[in-house]
Design a protein that fits this description.
The chain is mainly β. Helices cover 0% and strands 60% of the residues. It is built from no helices and eleven strands. Strands 2, 4, 5, 6, 9, 10 and 11 form a seven-stranded mixed β-sheet that branches. A four-stranded antiparallel β-sheet has the order 1-3-8-7, with no helix packed on it. Strand 9 and strand 10 form a beta hairpin. It is elongated and about 50 Å long. The relative contact order is 0.33. The model has no long low-confidence stretch (mean pLDDT 96).
Length: 120
């Protein structure tokens, strides 16, 4: 059993900043990739940022230069620092983790989602 618990969402004005956190807990052998996805009303869920266990990152073009993904491996936590937020960033943000469980089986787990609203 692995759970991802998200925090840090909220409402901000355009140009503002938020920092999302996602902590994994449970029976894990290791965590491979961790990522942040978002889903706006009426749209498909899309990848925002991805970070490997070694720290390599990948970003969607829409957030490059504004968002930074990072992780704290000893704490099993991934972060998303969001700066210069735009109204089009409004969505429910979900964290994702590819986990090798203690039973040596790979699974992808999802956080519960946290709302980010950017409006004036």
């Amino acid at each position: 059993q692995v759970q991802l618990v998200e925090s840090g969402g909220g409402s901000v004005q355009p140009g503002g900043s938020l920092r999302l956190s996602c902590a994994a807990s449970g029976s894990m052998f290791s965590i491979n990739n961790m990522g942040w996805y978002r889903q706006a009303p009426g749209k498909q869920r899309e990848l925002v940022a991805l970070i490997s266990s070694g720290g390599s990152t990948n970003y969607d073009d829409s957030v490059k230069g504004r968002f930074t993904i990072s992780r704290d491996n000893p704490k099993n936590t991934v972060y998303l620092q969001m700066n210069s937020l735009k109204p089009e960033d409004t969505a429910v943000y979900y964290c994702n983790a590819a986990v090798l469980t203690t039973s040596l089986t790979n699974y992808e787990y999802w956080g519960q989602g946290t709302q980010v609203t950017v409006s004036s």
